[in-house]
Design a protein that fits this description.
Layout (H helix, E strand, L loop, with lengths): L28 H6 L9 H24 L7 H45 L8 H10 L2 H14 L2 H9 L2 H4 L3 H15 L1 H27 L7 H25 L2
């Protein structure tokens, strides 16, 4: 008669390689995608590319650490060490994320100020409330055309009035305002707008790295099958040790 037994996870070897997402690999495409290959050393874009390379290298080496167990170290001790190193890796990624998030936020604020100074500087004596009243009284389609024309002609008086007033006074709803401002930025501050879009890519990668890291952490020290197997073995050992000690005291 054949007795069927469930296969227990092989815990004697090192852990299998983790499949890493693109954001956590040393792909040369990231530098080119961000424009970091043409960026000045020390710039926000350059620092993000440098961060991504460092994190990718850390994950590559972590994978090697998981897969190579010292024969003198028990599987349980290896797993415990890997869990400790996983926490260190996670903390490193969080630290880098926080540093870059602050840097990106400050850089974007600086660019926004430069853009405002370029596209929303009214002349002395011009009343923005009067311009907003004119805009509000125009037909809706003509209102948007007037703002686009102001951007085409460099009329910062009209742009200042449109972009600093609220929707009630200008007649421009918020969902339209963003698109109109984007148009004006491209027309009158194209270089600054391009740098802001570049920072959007940097910010997206920074968030992507953190999110992908957090997704991997629950199984960084082995999948649930391996972890449960060690718990089961530990419980079995405790019961055997207790029974042995009791037998000595009889």
């Amino acid at each position: 008669m054949t007795i069927m037994t469930s296969k227990r996870p092989d815990v004697a070897k090192g852990l299998p390689e983790m499949q890493l997402p693109a954001a956590l690999t040393a792909a040369d495409g990231w530098e080119k995608s961000l424009g970091a290959d043409k960026a000045q050393p020390g710039s926000t874009v350059w620092e993000m590319a440098k961060n991504q390379r460092a994190i990718a290298e850390a994950f590559e080496n972590f994978n090697k650490l998981r897969a190579t167990r010292d024969p003198k170290v028990t599987p349980a001790a290896h797993l415990e060490n890997i869990a400790k190193q996983a926490k260190a890796l996670e903390a490193n990624v969080h630290r880098r994320y926080d540093t870059m998030r602050t840097r990106i936020r400050d850089h974007k604020a600086e660019l926004d100020k430069q853009i405002r100074d370029r596209i929303m500087v009214p002349r002395a004596g011009v009343d923005p409330a009067e311009i907003r009243a004119v805009l509000r009284n125009l037909p809706e389609s003509e209102r948007y055309k007037a703002i686009q024309q102001a951007a085409d002609e460099g009329d910062t008086d009209t742009l200042h009035a449109a972009f600093t007033g609220n929707s009630i006074t200008s007649g421009i709803p918020k969902d339209k305002l963003a698109g109109l401002r984007n148009y004006a930025e491209k027309k009158l501050a194209g270089d600054l707008h391009a740098r802001k879009e570049q920072l959007d890519k940097v910010e997206s990668l920074n968030v992507n790295i953190l999110e992908r890291t957090m997704e991997l952490m629950p199984t960084a020290a082995g999948d649930l099958g391996v972890q449960n197997e060690f718990k089961k073995q530990a419980a079995e050992h405790d019961r055997a040790r207790l029974a042995f000690n009791n037998s000595l005291n009889k």
